[in-house]
Design goal:
The protein has a domain at about 95-185 and about 320-360: D-Maltodextrin-Binding Protein, domain 2 (3-Layer(aba) Sandwich), CATH 3.40.190.10. About 45% of the residues are buried. Strands 3, 4, 5, 6, 7, 8, 9, 10 and 11 form a 9-stranded mixed beta sheet that branches. Strands 1-2 form a two-stranded antiparallel ribbon. It is an alpha/beta fold and about 375 residues long. The chain contains 12 helices and 11 strands.
Length: about 375
Amino acid sequence: MTFTSKRSILPLILLACLGLGTASHAQEACTTYVVKEGDTLGAISMAAYGRLDYQTLFNANSEALRGTIELAPGTELLIPCEDGRLTAGETVVPIEEAVAAAPAAGTSTGGYRPKIRFATGGDWYPFADEGLTGGGFLIRLVSTAMVRAGNDYPFKIDWVDDWDSHLTTLLPNDAFDISVAWYQIDCTNLDQVSEMTRDLCLNYIFSESLYDAVFGFFAQKDNPYAGAKTFADLKGARFCRPEGYSFQDLDAEGLMEPVITISIPSLSADCFEGLSDGTYDVASIESQAAAVVIQELGLGDQIVENPRITSIQAIAAMAYKSNPRALEFMTYLNRGIAEMRDTGEWNTIVSSSLKEASDKLAAGGP
């Protein structure tokens, strides 16, 4: 399960979908909104921004939503401003200032501590890429968390773009301690998961979530599965999800072969081209990544995102269980992540990075 050939970026205009169901009551960006009966996250984002933008709303309300997009009436949601501010009174932090406030890898200030060796890979825009400020926001989050946890451990982050090698060689053979970043796995019921998920559960440990990614489900407008209302309605579909993506959300819903047919190409574009030519019924990847691929392929008038079916998958750092310091290092990293979320620094890094990515897209692409 690698991140081979993934390219993600926060789009300026996310794909609008048909058939959102119950219309949300009037919302505006830069305000709060109290959820009414029948509201959906998709409908709220359409009302506030004129586009389907699950991720922006989820990022701002992850604590209230607690890993789900199911909305309970009475829940108060923050509707962020178009420029990334959480409220109208908040100051926009330029990315240069955000980077300055997030120190790069340094040296331990205390007694001896072993150096933590991180590995990551590129071509995963804007999450991790050497061409981005700080290496992308996941790398900025990890670097900052290491400092915020107490600056006790020296650390180094190296780039190894062959993501498969992280699993097969680098972590098992102790060449690196932690790989950034992978989809966090739910290991509570190993009897009902795919072989791929089982292997990760048995051999790896994960950090706390660095970022919760919203996964969309896409289909041709005239495909019968485009109107699916529940996961159960997807039974029998020919699914496509590219290399590097976890299947645990499908496992949890009982959508494993032979209930569905799954194809795993190396490129996200292959999935969407397959939707276009009828090879697949459903493609599912991160909504942010999908919007860019659809735009690049010129398929915006053919493919729609299902507004009723989505899933949330946490992205985390990962270590091999046999590493004698794996738990120690993860505990330290988790402490820094918690500190950043408590102070709001997490949102500053994410929002400034996504704004940079959006600006680059507007200027012609990454």
